[in-house]
Design a protein that fits this description.
The chain is α/β, with parallel strands linked by helices. Helices cover 51% and strands 11% of the residues. It is globular. It holds the Pfam family SKI.
């Protein structure tokens, strides 16, 4: 018999380095559901890294691709779905997230920069001053994350397992039951 009690995914949002992919995978394992990552799906569908999309096509084109990937994921996935850190910049995406269980993984600037590193895989952090860039990113996105989150966990100083434990305790009733 197929379990249909969770018809919509639990969505994980947060800035780069907050642990969306790592914690999302752990949460999916604990719940016995599939894990999907919007950035991974985009790279697979586009056949190239996100940094290449940014470099050759620009952020606006990437955000349109991302918006379509999120819409498709919200419609097709039923497990845990991690979004890219900037997905919340789209008003359309924010509207589509209404009514979903949306987990916001918060992280402070110092910890976020440390975790995200200076990787070129994160095109918005590959600038001259990554700390200033990360601070500006947090300042712009934090209100958006909080406006749509139904559950928030500060990940600073916690291991991925500890974050997942906290989430399991905070997720609403049906969402927190293993399947």
């Amino acid at each position: 018999m197929t379990d249909t009690s969770r018809a919509e995914p639990i969505v994980v949002i947060g800035p780069p380095g907050s642990g969306k992919s790592t914690v999302g995978r752990l949460l999916a394992q604990r719940l016995g559901v599939e894990f999907h990552d919007a950035d991974t799906e985009i790279q697979r569908e586009q056949g190239r890294p996100i940094s290449d999309i940014f470099a050759s096509d620009g952020e606006e084109v990437f955000r349109a691709i991302e918006e379509a990937a999120v819409e498709r994921g919200l419609r097709e996935y039923t497990g845990v779905f991690a979004l890219g850190g900037g997905a919340v910049l789209s008003a359309t995406t924010r509207e589509r997230l209404a009514g979903h269980t949306v987990v916001f993984l918060g992280v402070g600037m110092a910890e976020g920069v440390r975790r995200a590193g200076l990787s070129t895989a994160r095109p918005l952090l590959a600038g001259v001053n990554p700390r200033a860039t990360y601070k500006a990113l947090l300042d712009a996105r934090l209100p958006l994350y909080r406006a749509i989150a139904t559950v928030e966990v500060d990940t600073d100083g916690l291991t991925p397992d500890e974050v997942t434990d906290t989430l399991m305790a905070r997720l609403p009733g049906e969402a927190a039951r293993p399947h």
